[in-house]
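Checklist before submission:
- one chain only
- standard amino acids only
- sequence pasted in full

Submission:
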Amino acid sequence: MTSRIVSVETFPARYPVSGRFKFLASSASARPTRDTVMVKICDDARNIGWGQCVPSPTWSYETFESVRTTIDRHLGPVLIGLDPFDSDGVWRMLNRTIAPSFSTGQPICKAGIDLALFDLTGRALQQTAAERWKRRGRKAITLSWTVDARSMDEVGNTVAEAQQRGFHNFNVKVGADAAFDVEMCAALRRLAPEAFLCVDANGGYDLATALAVAPKFADLGIRGLEQPLPANHLIGYRELRRQRALPILMDEGIVSLADLETFHQLDLLDGVAMKVSRCCGLTEACRILEYMRQHDLLFFASGLTDPDLSVAASLLLFGAYDLRHPAALNAPQLLSGTFLQRAVAVAGDQAIVPLGTGLGVEVNEAKLRAEQIAP
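Returned file contents:
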């Protein structure tokens, strides 16, 4: 099947934030929103696909504005006339137009395009993601609750809220104060003795601190230490792997399969906290997961507070590849609203994997257009 791309459009999609999270900060005078960019791609056979970019400037260098202008002015125009089924050709053009630095250039931006093309081609083929990948995995993904506490009082409150909403497992933001981090995790273990706990430093520790704190986390039954050091501190990751106190997971540094192959062969990690939105979408994410399966690497999962299409894509991938650990997809915890005809189903800590063709969900385009806010 072949066709030609005839249009690429972008739309702002903003979601109210219902809780505090350090990566969703705002000014004191404005209520925070999670600002994303929806991408609509059409071909000459009247097939339509939708994707979503979820930039997070406090987490990476990509912003809402940079994503939208890059697609509108650069990536969208070069896609016109290309075959949406020619994935290799599309990606050659995308990477030629926005070049890499250390790794893939603007991967969060490109993820939205990749999801839209996956949606378009899946609908044209009348295939679900599981059918395209020839995989049958989980029908639901267990979610964890994000703990981003600033005081011990907040720890108890967040556990109580999580349990009241049907959550039983926790991913914990650490990295600013190691002594507080250990105290916080000890409190979490007392309050939820059977919980799966994983800590994520988002590159916040230096090597000496990470080496000192890892055994203490291990004593508390923490299951993994995610991104303890900045992504480019490769010598430090080698030292942490030699210590063997805890499994070391990389997140921010794994943008492409080439990154993972290099870091694995250098013996810098035990596994990856997978993010569809970080690694250019589903095409590259599948390649990364296949490599992880071949080399028996640990498969953890998280997101960038992904709503709607982005979380649907994550659930498709994590379900198909049989994710066995709770996923740190915290949009159900922190965001409200949807631009879908029917929101992704979440019951307690169980997120249901979409079943439809393409990305498995339907965009409410009328609502999206009606609620446009000039960037």
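Reviewer check: The first helix runs from residue 64 to 79.
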